[in-house]
Amino acid sequence: MTCTHKNMMTIPRPSEGDKEGAVCPECVETGSSWVHLRICRTCGHVGCCDSSPNRHARKHWETSQHPIISSMEPREIWSYCFIDDELVK
Questions:
Q1: Are 72 and 19 in contact (CB under 8 A)?
Q2: In this predicted structure, what is the pLDDT of residue 1?
Q3: Could you give the C-alpha distances from 54 to 10, 16, 38, 85, in angstroms and in order?
Q4: Dihedral sign (CA 62, 39, 68, 74)
Q5: pLDDT for 1-45, tens place per residue?
Q6: Which branch of life, at top level (predicted)?
Q7: Is residue 1 in a domain?
Q8: How many domains does the chain fold into?
């Protein structure tokens, strides 16, 4: 299967410099913690991953329908489409 939502990616894949010091704003606001960070490739929203207690990246997708996220973790360069449930190349 090939992701059909690539045309919704308007934000470039984050560089190593973009990843330094990144936080999940919703977790910071509530005093919660996160495991890993993801960035929305449609609008640039940064949220915590599905392994984090609050799953803010997924919640952002559920409310915005922006389908593709990328890892904000150092040395990780993958993207994922929630709708197609697959890695995006």
A1: yes
A2: 66
A3: 25, 25, 13, 20
A4: negative
A5: 689 999 999 999 899 888 999 999 999 999 999 999 999 999 999
A6: Bacteria
A7: no
A8: 1
